[in-house]
Design a protein that fits this description.
Blueprint lengths: L3 H16 L6 E5 L5 E6 L2 H4 L6 H13 L8 E6 L3 H10 L3 E6 L24 E3 L4 H15 L1
């Protein structure tokens, strides 16, 4: 399966977040050669930072690795469909491709509730692929929220 190995890395980061009491979302950014150049997991609780989403952390690290904000030749792989903030961040970085696992029926902004990356008013249009290892990604989130209730 395409992006299976990269999604495994994102899932490992999501599991770390789960163990630390964070919403279990993990993300990696790979360059054109498929090398991981950025990784992130939710750190909102640990950093008391509402913007510390996995995608933002991964893209920030990738930009630092490249020495450029422009991630046009890169792919973001994340365990949950990006929210509006993260979808917007993807556009701001010109990320070339967004790959995600579980669909987000509450705040999904890459095809389920909104489709920010493919909005015709935007200009830059990354490729978007959802449902990669969807069941496994969704189960981790379901387990987390069941434990909290």
């Amino acid at each position: 399966m395409r992006w299976n190995g990269e999604m495994e890395r994102a899932l490992a980061l999501a599991r770390e977040a789960f163990e630390d009491g964070e919403v279990p979302v993990g993300a990696v950014v790979v360059d054109a050669e498929g090398q991981v150049i950025g990784k992130g997991r939710n750190l909102r609780e640990a950093h008391a930072d509402p913007l510390a989403h996995a995608e933002v952390k991964a893209m920030t690290e990738a930009a630092g690795t490249l020495g450029s904000w422009n991630l046009a030749d890169c792919t973001l792989i994340v365990t949950l469909e990006p929210c509006p903030m993260c979808a917007g961040a993807c556009l701001q970085t010109h990320i070339g491709r967004i790959v995600f696992g579980a669909w987000d029926a509450k705040l999904g902004a890459c095809g389920s509730i909104w489709d920010i990356p493919r909005d015709p008013h935007v200009g830059h249009v990354p490729e978007v692929f959802g449902g990669v290892r969807e069941e496994e990604c969704a189960r981790l989130l379901t387990d987390f929220f069941q434990r909290r209730r």
